[in-house]
Design goal:
Layout lengths: L11 E12 L8 E11 L8 H7 L17 H18 L12 E7 L2 E7 L6 E3 L2 H10 L1 H7 L4
Antiparallel strand pairs: 1-2, 3-4, 3-5
Length: about 150
C-alpha cells in the first residue's frame, strides 16, 4: 500500500475528506486507485478578552507564577506586566517589531499619569502591536491590567 502525506496549511484545519473508490483502472486486477478530495477551512483565531480566558485557551492553570518576595513593592505590577506581555504575544500571533525598518508600530504606554496609545517608527515600547485595530482592542480588553502595570511601562 502506498501512503501519501498531506500537509495542512498553517492556520487551516481539515474540514472534510471525501473519497470514491475506483477499482481495476488500467486493466490490472491488483491496481486499485482511490481518488480523494480534502477540504481545508481557515481556523478563526479567537482573541482572549481576559487573563483567565487566555489561560483556558492554552490550558494554563492559575495566575502568573513569579518568585517574588512577600515584601516586594512591585509584586502586583510585575505580575500584571508578565500577563500583558503574554497576552501581547498572543494578540500579535508571532509578530515582533523590526526596529530597523520604517514601518509604523502601534503602542500602548504610560505618559503623564495616563495609559495612552500611539504610533511610531523607531520608539521601542514593551507593548507594541502589528496593527492599530489589535492595539485598540487590547487596550479596551486589558485596561485593568494596564492600570496595575503602569509604573513599569
Amino acid at each position: 500500500m502506498k501512503k501519501h502525506k498531506v500537509k495542512i496549511p498553517k492556520g487551516y484545519r481539515v474540514c472534510a475528506v471525501c473519497s470514491e473508490s475506483f477499482e481495476n483502472i488500467g486493466g490490472d486486477p491488483d491496481n486499485k486507485t482511490i481518488e480523494m478530495t480534502i477540504t481545508f477551512k481557515p481556523i478563526k483565531k479567537e482573541l482572549p478578552k481576559t487573563w483567565d480566558e487566555y489561560c483556558g485557551l492554552y490550558k494554563l492553570y492559575g495566575s502568573a507564577t513569579l518568585m517574588i518576595d512577600d515584601g516586594e513593592q512591585y509584586a502586583a505590577e510585575f505580575i500584571a506586566l508578565y500577563q500583558l506581555i503574554k497576552l501581547r504575544d498572543n494578540y500579535n500571533d508571532g509578530w515582533g517589531p523590526n526596529w530597523k525598518n520604517e514601518d509604523i508600530k502601534y503602542h500602548i504606554f504610560y505618559r503623564n499619569d495616563k495609559i495612552v496609545t500611539g504610533e511610531s517608527r523607531y520608539e521601542n515600547k514593551a507593548l507594541s502591536f502589528k496593527s492599530k485595530k489589535l492595539r485598540d482592542e487590547f487596550h479596551l480588553n486589558f485596561h485593568d491590567l494596564l492600570e496595575i502595570a503602569k509604573p513599569l511601562l
